[in-house]
Specification:
This protein is mainly β. It has a seven-stranded antiparallel beta sheet, with no helix packed on it. A hairpin with a 2-residue loop joins strand 5 and strand 6. The longest helix is centred in the last third of the chain and has 7 residues. The relative contact order is 0.31.
């Protein structure tokens, strides 16, 4: 199977980071070979589902073993498919950014946790009825790791010494 990008992330985050992803606006710029008519109707959605590539990762980063999230020994180790990061075999991610508007081939979004230059393989409006069905649960470490700071505003990120 060959998969090619349909768009590229422009602006927004410039370097990968674990936290402080919130409040950053970026553009998903549709490639020239796709007509702008392909975007018709997208503006009716509040959020998108975006499939993108961890392009700054390396195949050498792939980890096919159980490990503690963020190497925190307080969290139970889990395997590759129990994590959401670049250490995956295909280095793919799915995000649900909020749609701000469309201008030509530029799809303006906020809260997309991809960086400038990221290849986007596909995107679509988020269909709420197709979201998770039934009760939703996750391991405790997911909330402990993400809830304090993942979606905190990027401009509140502490300076690293």
């Amino acid at each position: 199977m060959e998969i090619v990008s349909v768009a590229t992330v422009v602006g927004g985050h410039t370097t990968p980071a674990d936290d402080y992803q919130g409040g950053v606006e970026s553009i998903i710029r549709l490639h020239e070979q796709y007509p702008t008519e392909a975007l018709k109707g997208v503006d009716g959605f509040s959020h998108l589902q975006v499939l993108w590539h961890f392009h700054l990762g390396s195949p050498d980063d792939v980890a096919l073993h159980a490990r503690s999230p963020r190497n925190n020994p307080q969290w139970e180790p889990s395997g590759t498919f129990g994590h959401r990061n670049h250490r995956r075999p295909n280095r793919l991610a799915i995000s649900q950014p909020r749609l701000l508007g469309i201008d030509g081939r530029d799809v303006h979004v906020t809260d997309l946790d991809a960086v400038d230059g990221t290849p986007v393989f596909d995107f679509a409006g988020w269909f709420p009825p197709m979201g998770p069905r039934g009760p939703i649960h996750a391991p405790k470490w997911v909330s402990e790791m993400l809830e304090p700071d993942y979606w905190a505003p990027a401009d509140e990120r502490p300076a690293h010494s």
